[in-house]
Amino acid sequence: MMDKLTASVGTALDRFIAQKQEQFPYATGELSQLLRDIALASKIINREINRAGLAGIEGGAGAENVQGEAQQKLDMIADIRFTRALSKGGETCGIISEEVDGIIDTGNHHAKYIVTIDPLDGSSNIDVNVLVGTIFSIYRRRSPIGRPPTKEDMLQQGTEQVAAGYVLYGSSTMLVYSTGYGVNGFTYEPSLGEYFLSHPNMQCKEDGEIYSINEGGYNTFDEGLKEYITACKDREYSSRYIGSLVGDFHRNLLKGGIYIYPSTSKYKTGKLRLLYECNALAFLAEQSGAMATDGYQRILDIKPTEFHQRTPFYVGSPKMVEEAMSFLQGKKHKSVTAPPVNGVEVK
């Protein structure tokens, strides 16, 4: 009994970050502090979400963001909280956010990093107490130190990310991130106010039996995708779709599966944003052994041309993503056996 009561609570996030700092010999602590700033802001958002109903901050704000989408009150609160934390932390010179049109100049012109962020993904689920999250990417600036951030700093390919992650606000709050050396997950212990390592070296299964897609848009999908979904049904795969990107991604990362937000007749280029949703999750996917594409090419290879650029998104267990791509590209049909992919027969 005493052993259980006095068992170690694990490795705290701050200590983990400090231990891993040696992986970046060129850095002098700025990236570590930036990750701490994000963790601090996420604790504040976690508090706001948990008291949303009592504080009257759930529901719509009566306004639209730059995407023309209805803003929730918590969208605006999360955007303000993260902007303040990153600005006052001093380690980022500029931010682009889903909720803002253009660059947020933090005034920290001597900082080395820029951040792209979706402050509160899935915020429309707040009213029904369903998972929501924060998604972020960190890049090194390209412009000279000491000057304001530029458009070139922001429009970088996903391959240039130095770190990326997400925070999942649910039955427990988790921070999952990678600096290019694997993916690690930390669970928040509210009584101590600390994140503790709970999911070290997260690995996605090579194959899975879960597909996550909003089938309400089935009639707007192209024929290849319809055939892939039919193949999943024929195999009696489980259909799981929360409507919160972070929640669906997190489940499939742990259990194996594929998440799909395709192009449709309504959204020709998809609906998810490349810079502050897809790049971050694609980075994490590849670090965990998963795969992320737009159905035809690797997400991290897409060259962004605008801040709020959208893209179709296929991410998850590599065998499932490769098979979905083969259907999309007309290389496989229900009645035809596909050629081997990387030497492995796809059934």
From TrEMBL:
GO annotation terms (biological process): fructose 1,6-bisphosphate metabolic process; fructose 6-phosphate metabolic process; fructose metabolic process; gluconeogenesis; sucrose biosynthetic process
Main localization of the protein described in the UniProt heading: cytoplasm
Binding-site list for substrate: D121, G122, S123, S124, N214, Y241, K271
Annotated ranges, domain Fructose-1-6-bisphosphatase class 1 C-terminal: 205-328
Key words of the record: Carbohydrate metabolism, Cytoplasm, Hydrolase, Magnesium, Metal-binding
Cofactor: Mg(2+)
Functional pathway: Carbohydrate biosynthesis
Residue intervals of the Fructose-1-6-bisphosphatase class I N-terminal domain: 13-200
Binding site for Mg(2+) 1: E98, D118, L120
Binding site for Mg(2+) 2: D118, D121, E277
Gene Ontology cellular component list: cytosol
Catalytic activity: beta-D-fructose 1,6-bisphosphate + H2O = beta-D-fructose 6-phosphate + phosphate
Pfam families tied to this protein: FBPase (PF00316), FBPase_C (PF18913)
Assembly mode: Homotetramer.
Annotated family: Belongs to the FBPase class 1 family.
Name this polypeptide is given: Fructose-1,6-bisphosphatase class 1
